[in-house]
Protein backbone atom coordinates (compact mmCIF):
# COMPACT_ATOMS: atom_id res chain seq x y z
CA UNK A 1 0.00 0.00 0.00
CA UNK A 2 1.74 3.09 -1.18
CA UNK A 3 0.46 6.63 -1.15
CA UNK A 4 -3.23 6.82 -0.32
CA UNK A 5 -3.50 3.29 1.02
CA UNK A 6 -0.55 3.82 3.35
CA UNK A 7 -2.01 7.11 4.60
CA UNK A 8 -5.35 5.40 5.26
CA UNK A 9 -3.62 2.61 7.18
CA UNK A 10 -1.65 5.12 9.25
CA UNK A 11 -4.90 6.92 10.06
CA UNK A 12 -6.67 3.71 11.09
CA UNK A 13 -3.71 2.75 13.27
CA UNK A 14 -3.63 6.19 14.93
CA UNK A 15 -7.37 6.06 15.59
CA UNK A 16 -7.02 2.63 17.19
CA UNK A 17 -3.81 3.15 19.16
CA UNK A 18 -3.89 6.83 20.06
CA UNK A 19 -7.62 7.62 19.99
CA UNK A 20 -6.70 10.17 17.32
CA UNK A 21 -9.35 12.16 15.49
CA UNK A 22 -9.53 10.66 12.02
CA UNK A 23 -9.86 13.95 10.15
CA UNK A 24 -6.88 15.60 11.87
CA UNK A 25 -4.63 12.61 11.41
CA UNK A 26 -5.74 12.08 7.82
CA UNK A 27 -4.88 15.70 6.95
CA UNK A 28 -1.39 15.17 8.35
CA UNK A 29 -0.94 11.80 6.62
CA UNK A 30 -2.06 13.25 3.25
CA UNK A 31 -0.01 16.44 3.45
CA UNK A 32 2.46 15.51 0.72
CA UNK A 33 0.18 13.33 -1.44
CA UNK A 34 -1.27 14.42 -4.76
CA UNK A 35 -5.03 15.02 -4.96
CA UNK A 36 -5.91 11.56 -6.29
CA UNK A 37 -3.94 9.73 -3.60
CA UNK A 38 -5.34 12.01 -0.88
CA UNK A 39 -8.87 11.33 -2.14
CA UNK A 40 -8.20 7.58 -2.07
CA UNK A 41 -6.84 7.83 1.48
CA UNK A 42 -9.93 9.76 2.61
CA UNK A 43 -12.34 7.33 0.98
CA UNK A 44 -10.57 4.33 2.47
CA UNK A 45 -10.09 5.68 5.99
CA UNK A 46 -13.58 7.13 6.37
CA UNK A 47 -15.16 4.13 4.63
CA UNK A 48 -13.49 1.63 6.94
CA UNK A 49 -14.32 3.66 10.04
CA UNK A 50 -17.97 4.07 9.02
CA UNK A 51 -18.45 0.42 8.03
CA UNK A 52 -16.19 -1.27 10.55
CA UNK A 53 -18.85 -3.45 12.19
CA UNK A 54 -20.08 -4.79 8.85
CA UNK A 55 -16.54 -5.36 7.56
CA UNK A 56 -15.63 -7.20 10.77
CA UNK A 57 -18.75 -9.37 10.45
CA UNK A 58 -17.88 -10.46 6.91
CA UNK A 59 -14.17 -10.85 7.62
CA UNK A 60 -15.01 -13.02 10.63
CA UNK A 61 -17.12 -15.19 8.32
CA UNK A 62 -14.13 -15.61 5.97
CA UNK A 63 -11.54 -16.36 8.68
CA UNK A 64 -10.85 -19.85 9.94
CA UNK A 65 -10.00 -18.34 13.33
CA UNK A 66 -11.80 -15.66 15.31
CA UNK A 67 -11.27 -12.29 13.62
CA UNK A 68 -11.07 -10.55 17.01
CA UNK A 69 -8.12 -12.78 17.95
CA UNK A 70 -5.96 -11.48 15.09
CA UNK A 71 -3.26 -8.87 15.66
CA UNK A 72 -4.80 -5.35 15.47
CA UNK A 73 -2.52 -4.32 12.59
CA UNK A 74 -3.61 -7.36 10.56
CA UNK A 75 -7.27 -6.57 11.28
CA UNK A 76 -6.71 -3.01 9.98
CA UNK A 77 -5.07 -4.29 6.78
CA UNK A 78 -7.90 -6.80 6.27
CA UNK A 79 -10.51 -4.08 6.78
CA UNK A 80 -8.83 -1.88 4.16
CA UNK A 81 -8.71 -4.74 1.68
CA UNK A 82 -12.29 -5.77 2.42
CA UNK A 83 -13.55 -2.21 1.98
CA UNK A 84 -11.91 -2.03 -1.45
CA UNK A 85 -13.36 -5.41 -2.47
CA UNK A 86 -16.89 -4.71 -1.26
CA UNK A 87 -17.30 -0.98 -1.88
CA UNK A 88 -14.90 0.22 -4.57
CA UNK A 89 -15.78 -0.91 -8.09
CA UNK A 90 -12.80 0.83 -9.69
CA UNK A 91 -10.28 -1.14 -7.64
CA UNK A 92 -9.89 -4.69 -8.97
CA UNK A 93 -10.24 -7.31 -6.25
CA UNK A 94 -6.86 -8.77 -7.18
CA UNK A 95 -5.20 -5.37 -6.68
CA UNK A 96 -6.82 -4.95 -3.26
CA UNK A 97 -5.61 -8.41 -2.20
CA UNK A 98 -2.11 -7.87 -3.61
CA UNK A 99 -1.70 -4.44 -1.96
CA UNK A 100 -2.82 -5.83 1.40
CA UNK A 101 -0.40 -8.77 1.18
CA UNK A 102 2.49 -6.51 0.15
CA UNK A 103 1.75 -4.16 3.04
CA UNK A 104 1.94 -7.02 5.51
CA UNK A 105 5.24 -8.14 4.00
CA UNK A 106 6.69 -4.60 4.06
CA UNK A 107 5.82 -4.31 7.75
CA UNK A 108 7.87 -7.45 8.46
CA UNK A 109 4.90 -9.71 9.13
CA UNK A 110 5.56 -12.32 6.45
CA UNK A 111 3.94 -15.06 8.50
CA UNK A 112 0.60 -13.26 8.28
CA UNK A 113 0.79 -12.66 4.51
CA UNK A 114 -0.74 -16.06 3.72
CA UNK A 115 -3.63 -15.44 6.09
CA UNK A 116 -4.34 -12.00 4.59
CA UNK A 117 -4.19 -13.46 1.09
CA UNK A 118 -6.52 -16.36 1.95
CA UNK A 119 -9.12 -14.27 3.80
CA UNK A 120 -9.34 -11.53 1.17
CA UNK A 121 -9.39 -13.97 -1.75
CA UNK A 122 -12.20 -15.87 -0.07
CA UNK A 123 -14.11 -12.62 0.51
CA UNK A 124 -13.62 -11.69 -3.15
CA UNK A 125 -14.80 -15.12 -4.32
CA UNK A 126 -17.85 -15.18 -2.05
CA UNK A 127 -18.89 -11.51 -2.07
CA UNK A 128 -22.06 -12.28 -4.03
CA UNK A 129 -23.06 -14.90 -1.43
CA UNK A 130 -22.05 -13.36 1.89
CA UNK A 131 -23.93 -14.56 4.96
CA UNK A 132 -26.97 -12.50 5.94
CA UNK A 133 -26.83 -10.29 8.99
CA UNK A 134 -28.21 -12.09 12.03
CA UNK A 135 -31.97 -11.62 12.38
CA UNK A 136 -32.94 -9.34 15.24
CA UNK A 137 -29.33 -8.33 15.81
CA UNK A 138 -30.42 -5.22 17.68
CA UNK A 139 -29.60 -7.07 20.89
CA UNK A 140 -26.01 -7.76 19.86
CA UNK A 141 -26.07 -11.17 18.17
CA UNK A 142 -22.59 -10.72 16.65
CA UNK A 143 -19.56 -11.21 18.86
CA UNK A 144 -18.37 -7.80 19.88
CA UNK A 145 -21.70 -6.00 19.86
CA UNK A 146 -24.86 -5.41 17.92
CA UNK A 147 -24.42 -4.70 14.24
CA UNK A 148 -27.69 -2.81 14.07
CA UNK A 149 -26.57 -0.43 16.83
CA UNK A 150 -23.32 0.42 15.08
CA UNK A 151 -23.45 3.37 12.71
CA UNK A 152 -22.78 3.19 9.00
CA UNK A 153 -23.76 -0.35 8.18
CA UNK A 154 -24.00 -1.25 4.54
CA UNK A 155 -26.78 -3.26 2.98
CA UNK A 156 -26.44 -6.22 0.66
CA UNK A 157 -29.20 -6.45 -1.93
CA UNK A 158 -29.91 -9.77 -3.64
CA UNK A 159 -27.12 -9.21 -6.19
CA UNK A 160 -24.50 -8.94 -3.44
CA UNK A 161 -23.62 -5.33 -4.25
CA UNK A 162 -22.85 -3.29 -1.14
CA UNK A 163 -24.45 0.14 -0.91
CA UNK A 164 -25.31 2.74 1.68
CA UNK A 165 -28.54 4.62 2.13
CA UNK A 166 -28.04 8.29 2.85
CA UNK A 167 -30.39 10.89 4.18
CA UNK A 168 -29.29 14.05 2.34
CA UNK A 169 -30.96 16.45 4.75
CA UNK A 170 -28.68 15.41 7.63
CA UNK A 171 -25.71 14.02 5.72
CA UNK A 172 -25.65 10.98 8.01
CA UNK A 173 -25.65 7.41 6.73
CA UNK A 174 -28.57 5.22 7.78
CA UNK A 175 -28.35 1.43 7.63
CA UNK A 176 -30.93 -0.04 5.29
CA UNK A 177 -33.92 -1.54 6.98
CA UNK A 178 -33.74 0.53 10.15
CA UNK A 179 -36.39 2.97 11.16
CA UNK A 180 -35.43 6.62 11.56
Task: Summarize it.
The chain has helices at residues 4-18, 22-29, 35-50, 52-62, 72-87, 93-106, 110-126, and strands at residues 165-167, 172-174.
Task: Give the SSE layout.
Elements: H1 4-18, H2 22-29, H3 35-50, H4 52-62, H5 72-87, H6 93-106, H7 110-126, E1 165-167, E2 172-174
Antiparallel strand pairs: 1-2
Helix pairs in contact: 1-2, 1-3, 1-5, 3-5, 4-5, 5-6, 5-7, 6-7
Write a structural description.
- It is built from seven helices and two strands; from the N terminus they run H-H-H-H-H-H-H-E-E.
- With 180 residues, the chain is mainly alpha-helical.
- The chain has two domains: 1-50, no CATH class; 52-129, NusB-like (N-utilizing Substance Protein B Homolog, Chain A), CATH 1.10.940.10.
- Strand 1 and strand 2 form a beta hairpin.
- Helix 5 runs parallel beside helix 7.
Amino acid sequence: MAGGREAALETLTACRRLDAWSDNHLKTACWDLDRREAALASRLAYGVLQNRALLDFYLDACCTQAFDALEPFIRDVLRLGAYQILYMDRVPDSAAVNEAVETVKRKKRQRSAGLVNAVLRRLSREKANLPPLPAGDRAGGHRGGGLQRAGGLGHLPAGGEVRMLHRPQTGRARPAGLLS
